[in-house]
């Protein structure tokens, strides 16, 4: 369990300072796939979990819950709109003690021959607040949940495992590098509430859009970056509480 959490933390490249003022205790429980589920190449698979606040402190709206999926301790890379993503996030959610959050995702898997056989499939979580009111999870033992799964012994593909998200997706961010503006293209499976946040490398938010509902299909959000200094930034596109993130370079 400790190995799984350490791997996820390293991939996220996130750290919490020693001056943490607040602690939470979030528990991850994998609900799908269940033990001994068989995965076949090309199959659409549900990856579901329940996150419960088992502590006494509220998980606040300015906190972020990061999570990722692992096979035998190695994090899965997902193909989302042509972009490689290893970590997802949930924001703008309050989680009081004993409250739960449902995570429901569906993916189409392409399974390489090297993964044939029984494997350990896990979800691992990392709650974080990068603001002044720093927060940590004081019980990492329940931050991961695993089941044994079986990959088809006759997979259809060679190479790396590929998992393609079957839901809302950011398909393109351009121009990147950006000068006076940046466009974010999305492909939405249903009518979706969307907002965008952009952070500098210190975690300071430099752009935030109001949440707006966009219709099903291809949509574009344009951001004014005229007043943003040159540098590397992280964008977060929040779609019905689920986060798609990536890098944006400003170079005027």
UniProtKB/TrEMBL annotation:
Q: Which UniProt keywords apply?
A: Signal
Q: Name one Pfam family in it.
A: Por_Secre_tail
Gene3D superfamilies listed in its UniProt record: Immunoglobulins (2.60.40.10)
InterPro entries (UniProt xref): Ig-like_fold, Secre_tail
**Cleaved signal peptide residues:** 1-20
Every copy of the Secretion system C-terminal sorting domain together lies at: 173-250
Q: Does the keyword Signal apply?
A: yes
**Superkingdom of the source?**
Bacteria
Name of the protein = Secretion system C-terminal sorting domain-containing protein
Report the source organism: Taibaiella soli
The taxonomic lineage of its organism, from the top, reads: Bacteria, Pseudomonadati, Bacteroidota, Chitinophagia, Chitinophagales
